[in-house]
């Protein structure tokens, strides 16, 4: 069942980690499913979630999303969920092994970039394998962004 109000092939973005691309150098991205309860899905459909401070971790051969915030569903009586509980990520065994080796050996981090509903109405998480940027790398990113903005302004004025 497609999300309400969506056109064919459109994704409904619920939460986005906008600072991730500034704080980390993104090397690889992948899509993972989430194990959610009913009230969590209803809360997500309302569009109130936060993944800005969350990360993914490997524990006992499984991947977990830690510190993500999904507020309680208002109409979800005693069966409601905890807002900051750990949520299991659905990945293949090979993907888990590849990510585990990259995190352990190369010192990388698993960062959630976007939480969304796909065209089939399933909640998905876009995960990124990234390396933390140093302060001088962040300054370089700001310089490039400002220069591109200034360049587009100049081209707009001249042409």
Automatic annotation (TrEMBL):
RNA-binding keyword on record: yes
Main localization of the protein described in the UniProt heading: cytoplasm
CDD domains, per database record: SmpB
GO cellular-component term (any): cytosol
Region entry Disordered, spans: 133-159
Sorted UniProt keywords: Cytoplasm, RNA-binding
Biological process terms in GO annotation: trans-translation; trans-translation-dependent protein tagging
Gene Ontology MF terms: RNA binding
InterPro entries reported for this sequence: SmpB, SsrA-bd_prot, SsrA-bd_prot_CS
Cross-referenced Gene3D superfamilies: 2.40.280.10
Keyword Amino-acid biosynthesis: no
Location of this chain's protein in the cell: Cytoplasm
Pfam families, alphabetized: SmpB
Positions with biased composition (Basic and acidic residues): 137-153
Task performed by this protein: Required for rescue of stalled ribosomes mediated by trans-translation. Binds to transfer-messenger RNA (tmRNA), required for stable association of tmRNA with ribosomes. tmRNA and SmpB together mimic tRNA shape, replacing the anticodon stem-loop with SmpB. tmRNA is encoded by the ssrA gene; the 2 termini fold to resemble tRNA(Ala) and it encodes a 'tag peptide', a short internal open reading frame. During trans-translation Ala-aminoacylated tmRNA acts like a tRNA, entering the A-site of stalled ribosomes, displacing the stalled mRNA.
Family: Belongs to the SmpB family.
HAMAP family to which the protein is assigned, alphabetical: SmpB
NCBIfam families: PRK05422.1, smpB
Protein name: SsrA-binding protein
């Amino acid at each position: 069942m497609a999300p309400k109000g969506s056109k064919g092939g459109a994704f409904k973005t619920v939460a986005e980690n906008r600072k991730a691309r500034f704080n980390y150098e993104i090397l690889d991205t992948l899509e993972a499913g989430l194990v959610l309860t009913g009230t969590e899905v209803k809360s997500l459909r309302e569009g109130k979630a936060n993944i800005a401070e969350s990360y993914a971790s490997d524990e006992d051969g499984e991947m977990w999303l830690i510190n993500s915030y999904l507020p309680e569903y208002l109409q979800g009586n005693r069966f409601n969920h905890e807002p900051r509980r750990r949520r299991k990520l659905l990945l293949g065994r090979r993907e888990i092994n590849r990510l585990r080796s990259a995190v352990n050996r190369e010192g990388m981090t698993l960062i959630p970039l976007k939480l969304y509903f796909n065209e089939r109405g399933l909640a998905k998480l876009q995960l990124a394998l990234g390396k933390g940027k140093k302060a001088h790398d962040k300054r370089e990113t700001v310089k490039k962004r400002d220069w591109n903005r200034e360049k587009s302004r100049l081209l707009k004025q001249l042409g």
